[in-house]
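User: I'm writing a short methods note and want a consistent example. For CHM4C protein, I'll paste the sequence; you return only the C-alpha cells, no commentary, since I'll be parsing the reply automatically.
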Amino acid sequence: MSKISKFFKGGGSAASKGRGGPSPQEALARLRETEEMLSKKQQYLETRIERELAVARQHGTKNKRAALQALKRKKRYEKQLSQIDGTLSTIEFQREALENSHTNTEVLKNMGYAAQAMKRVHENMDLNKIDDLMQDITEQQDVAQEISDAISNRGTFGDEFDE
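Assistant:
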C-alpha cells in the first residue's frame, strides 16, 4: 500500500486506532512523510515544467500546435505546483502547531510533577515549627555574636585593673 493511500485510508497502527486517535509523535511523523512526498512531487513538476518549456521553444514557430500543447501542459503543471505550495504551507502550519501543543503538554505535565514534589517536601513542615526554629536560630546567632564580641574585645582587660 502506498504512503498516500495509507494516509488517506487511515492505514495506521491498531494501537493508535484503539486509543481514539494517533499520538502526537505518530501525527508528526505522518505530517513529515506527507511534506516529503509533496516536496518530491514539487521537484518532479518543476522538471516537467522545464521540459515543456523546452519543447515549446523547440517547436516555436515551426509547429505552433505542438508548442501550444506544451505550453498548456506547462500551465497545468504550474497550477498543480501552486496547489502543492498551498498544501505544503498548510501542512507546515499544522505540524508547527502540533509540535507547539506537544511541547506545551510536556511542560504542563512536568510542572505538575514539580508541584507534587513540592507538596511532598512541604507536607512535613509546619509554619509554627519553622517560626520557632527561626527564633532559635536568631537567638543562637545573638549568643554567638556576644561571645565573639567578648573574645575580640581584649582592650577592656587593661582598663579594669588599676596599677
